[in-house]
Design brief:
The chain is α+β, with helices and mostly antiparallel strands and about 140 residues long. The protein is about 35% helix and about 25% strand. It is built from 4 helices and 7 strands, in the order H-E-H-H-E-E-E-E-E-E-H. The chain is globular and about 40 Å long.
C-alpha cells in the first residue's frame, strides 16, 4: 500500500482530495515500514475522513480541536482517533472558491499529523505544524 493507492481510492469515491504535510508523510511511511496492520487502519481512516471531513456538529466525522492550556490554540483543526491503535490524525480543511468567482470549489484537506496520543504528542505536533497549513474555512463553518 502506498500514498498514491490511498489517494486513488479516494478519487474513485469522489471525496475531498487529501494532501500530507511533509512530516505527516514521513509518519505514514514509518507506519508502512513498521506496522502494516496499523498503517491499513490509518489508510481506511483517511479514506473515511475524505468522504465527509466536516466537524461532527455539521454531520461529518471530524472532531474540532479548540484552545487548551496544554496544547495552545488549535482552531480550526480537526481530528479523528483510531481507538484500537491509539493514533490521532489531525487535519485542516481547505475550501476555496474558483479564481473566476464561480460556485465551483476546491475541496481538499491537509493531514498535519499521524501520531500517538500519548502525552498529547499529536496535538503538540499539530501546534508546531499549524502555520504550514491552509486552514481556509468558509464563514458558515466557523463556530
Amino acid at each position: 500500500m502506498t500514498w498514491d493507492e490511498i489517494v486513488n481510492e479516494i478519487a474513485l469515491q469522489g471525496g475531498y482530495v487529501p494532501s500530507l504535510h511533509p512530516k505527516a508523510f514521513d509518519e505514514l511511511q514509518g507506519l508502512l515500514r513498521r506496522d502494516m496492520p496499523v498503517a491499513k487502519m490509518v489508510a481506511a481512516a483517511i479514506v473515511k475522513v475524505c468522504k465527509n471531513p466536516l466537524p461532527q456538529d455539521m454531520g461529518g466525522v471530524g472532531r474540532r480541536l479548540g484552545k487548551r492550556k496544554e496544547t495552545g490554540d488549535l482552531r480550526p483543526l480537526l481530528y479523528v482517533k483510531l481507538k484500537g491503535a491509539g493514533i490521532r490524525i489531525v487535519y485542516a480543511l481547505n475550501h476555496s472558491t474558483a479564481e473566476d468567482g464561480s460556485e465551483r470549489t476546491n475541496k481538499s484537506l491537509t493531514i498535519a499529523v499521524i501520531s500517538k496520543r500519548e502525552d498529547m504528542e499529536a496535538y503538540l505536533e499539530a501546534l508546531k505544524r499549524k502555520p504550514d497549513l491552509l486552514a481556509d474555512w468558509p464563514e458558515e463553518w466557523a463556530k
